[in-house]
Specification:
There is one protein chain. The protein is α/β, with parallel strands linked by helices. The chain folds into 2 domains: about 260 residues, P-loop containing nucleotide triphosphate hydrolases (Rossmann fold, 3-Layer(aba) Sandwich), CATH 3.40.50; about 70 residues, Immunoglobulin-like (Sandwich), CATH 2.60.40. The protein is about 40% helix and about 25% strand. The protein has an 8-stranded mixed beta sheet with strand order 3-4-2-5-1-6-7-8, with helices on both faces. A hairpin with a 2-residue loop joins strand 3 and strand 4. Helix 6 crosses helix 9. It is globular, with a radius of gyration of 25 Å.
């Protein structure tokens, strides 16, 4: 199954493009599920049919789903209270009624990730189109599974979970209460759920489609989005330039002529892109979405690779190539911490596990060239296999 993640700056029309993309693919015979977490149902407004917590069949091949974050949050809270009932009773805590609970910030994102996982595991569709939040929130959302799994491993390492049969003895020896069984079970369950989401995002059939309106603000947003996605090793399948005015609009001069000129310059800067014409009104319903003429979903997903080049024989180093298009040297920072490399570039940060071959090396330097970070590693004589 192909998974297409669609995002862009706020107000760029990404939800409309997501709806049009799903509708076009369904019209060509593919079984399509379009997924959104927008609580205001902009997806339903674009499609001309309300969407909700239950998947809704719109056409024989198109289904729309907007999972209910509030219901999911209430269910999770109720389950947590049941598992922690002993601790809550000891503390004299009063339980919350699920009906009085309002979802906390981040509930929509977690609900969308869970729905993404469920849809991928079901394998009942040929294409999954995901209407992500605006780019800054989308990048944080896409980073969430990896970051949360890392936190879980630090809080309850697997080796500590493996020794849980010894907890009663350790508790008596240490004189302190040990984590209850439900905590380990909950941690393991969360880790499995997050790993499933992470597998979908890392799948070679998953790609991102960026949507932006050409202009100075859109140009800057696209540059940041490409950089943030590259740091997460997520391939950008296509850049869609939305609401492009026709050239003849400039014939009358005035503000529209300046806008057309501005759009033309941005399109030249972007290079390869697919323009979608401005309809003169907000698209609503099947006819308008069809008139947008969004590009087809490509059968080929661009590969994103972070190769390690072996230059030990020539230069005595291995070089890790990390593509970071648009990165600026002054905004780049690297820190080696154990078996991880902390990469900070502009507003983005990622803690990346080192490939196994580089864990036996020391960092020898780094350089940023042509949108690619090249980190040099020198073999550590104390750990590197000796040749005879």
């Amino acid at each position: 199954m192909r998974t297409l993640l669609i995002t862009g700056p706020g107000g760029s029309g990404r939800t409309t493009v997501a709806a049009a993309t799903a509708l076009k693919a369904a019209g060509r015979g593919a079984k399509v599920l379009v997924l959104s977490a927008d609580r205001t149902d902009t997806l339903g407004a674009a499609l001309g049919t309300p969407t909700g917590a239950a998947p809704t069949r719109l056409t024989p091949h198109l289904t729309a789903w907007r999972p209910d974050a509030a219901a999911g949050f209430r269910d999770d809270l109720a389950a947590f209270q049941d598992r922690a009932s002993t601790v809550l009773d000891l503390l004299g805590a009063s339980r919350l009624d699920p009906e009085e609970v309002t979802p906390l910030p981040g509930a929509e994102e977690l609900t969308l990730l869970r729905a993404l996982r469920d849809a991928a595991l079901a394998e009942t569709h040929d294409l999954l189109v995901v209407d992500l939040p605006p780019t800054p929130q989308a990048l944080a959302l896409l980073a969430l599974p990896e970051e949360l799994r890392r936190y879980l491993r630090r809080l309850l390492p697997p080796e500590r979970q493996a020794a849980r049969a010894l907890r009663p003895v350790l508790g008596r020896l240490a004189g302190v209460p040990m984590p209850a069984e439900w905590l380990y079970e909950t941690t393991a369950r969360w880790d499995l759920e997050l790993a499933a989401v992470q597998a979908v995002l890392a799948d070679r059939a998953t790609a991102v489609r960026l949507v932006a309106e050409p202009g100075p603000a859109g140009e800057e947003a696209v540059r940041d989005a490409r950089l943030g996605l590259a740091l997460r090793a997520l391939p950008v399948e296509l850049l869609v330039a939305n609401r492009v005015l026709p050239e003849e609009t400039a014939d009358g001069g005035g503000p529209l002529a300046r806008l057309v000129s501005q759009q033309r310059k941005t399109l030249e800067t972007w290079g390869e892109t697919r323009p979608v014409a401005h309809l003169g009104h907000d698209p609503r319903g099947e006819d308008d979405l069809t008139a947008l003429a969004v590009p087809d979903v490509s059968a080929r997903v661009p590969a994103v690779e972070w190769p390690v080049a072996d230059r030990v024989a020539q230069d005595g180093v291995l070089v890790w190539h990390i593509p970071l298009p648009g990165a600026i040297r002054d905004d780049l920072d690297l820190v080696r911490r154990g078996d991880e490399l902390v990469v900070t570039v502009g507003p983005f940060r990622r803690i990346v596990p080192l490939p196994s071959v580089l864990r036996r090396c020391t960092v020898d330097g780094a350089a940023l060239r042509d949108g690619e970070l090249r980190v040099r590693f020198a073999p550590d004589p104390a750990q590197w296999p000796q040749t005879r």
